[in-house]
Amino acid sequence: xxxICLAICLTLLxxxxxxxxxxxETPAPEYSYIVCDWGLLTIENxxxxxxxxxxxxSPAAFSAVPGTSFTVSGTGAGMFEGNVVVEAIANGAxxxxxxxxxxxxxxxxxxxxxxxxxxxxxEGPTLVFVRAFSPSPEDGSDLAAANIDINVNSEFSLxxxxxxTPGVFAAGVNASPLLVEGMAGSVFENNLVIEVLDSASGxxxxxxxxxxxxxxxxxxxxxxxxxxxxxxxxxAVTIRAYQPPIADGEEITVSDTEFAVINPLGQxxxxxxxxxxxxxxxxxxxxxxxxxxxxxxxxxxxxxxxDVQVISTRSIMPLVNVSIDAAGSSxxxxxxxxxxxxxxxxxxxxxxxxxxxxxxxxxxxAPLPQSVSLGMLxxxxxxxxxxxxxxx
Length: 392
What we know:
Largest sheet: 8 strands, mixed
Order of helices and strands: EEEEEEEEEEEEEEEEEEEEHEEEEEEEEE
Strand content: over 45%
Low-confidence stretches: 1-25
Oligomer: single chain
Number of helices: 1
Radius of gyration: 25 Å
Number of strands: 29
Mean pLDDT: 89
Distance between the termini: 8 Å
């Protein structure tokens, strides 16, 4: 039996995911958004560690390494026979290359690796690019890779800025204020400029300052700033953090850039499409064109619907989220999608497997919960159907 419940919200909260799981056992998905001519495309990004991965944990990126001998170490999983190759490149030439092996309790399980690196004689401080990768036994391509820059033969770290929030490309973000966080080091007087630009026009929307939190001037530490941005929902923005020029006319050389979308759910759309990052429709070069035709797709295999909850904020224009207790094949390689078509105040939600390509799916049913949002609705008198069934 379907039901509608009203969430009591004293303050309207804008969230980047449709809404969090009530149990807290499963992390809420991370979504990125693209506003298209036909409506809103939402891409669900994976939040779990990939089955095959490789990291460099030490030395820290941009750090100083006294001398020319040091240990490089990290973690990884899923690599063929646990093979890891480490290279060090300076002045465009490979000056070190050697293999090591991942130490893991079981084949394919996460583990650790390390290797001693000796770069020999280097004259003075040298910028070194350290690369770790695991080669494929079939064609030699990288199964997984990681890299860092370090300052070898020096006591001074490299200047850097790294924005960590927003951290998902094209994630939905609040505009009042927009939180920008990150790490930085060796920045002159620990000062940074944070600016937000309209990605389409390049116009400046806001600017503020931030201070690197470090015990030492020019040390390594975190930074945080709140920026108020005056932009309509769905506006794509470019967020930039940089060390301001020390002298007039000096170029900006220490910076980082991220991209986001001003909370696109601050309004509603005539069409919504939810896909996963691995979906063949997820074409970074032309995402709107590739996905807009999905609303004409009649080759679908609808999920079974057990229950639906509609959760809305208590406000003049409520943010309406829909939790769908659905079930489908426990093993199906077909893309799983949800599309929403709006006709006035009526929303038709379809959640399904794409059946346009012949694939083998198991006949059993397993839980496949889906979470979608209808955005902020100007009229509270809306109706919803899910796979043809009305929500009461």
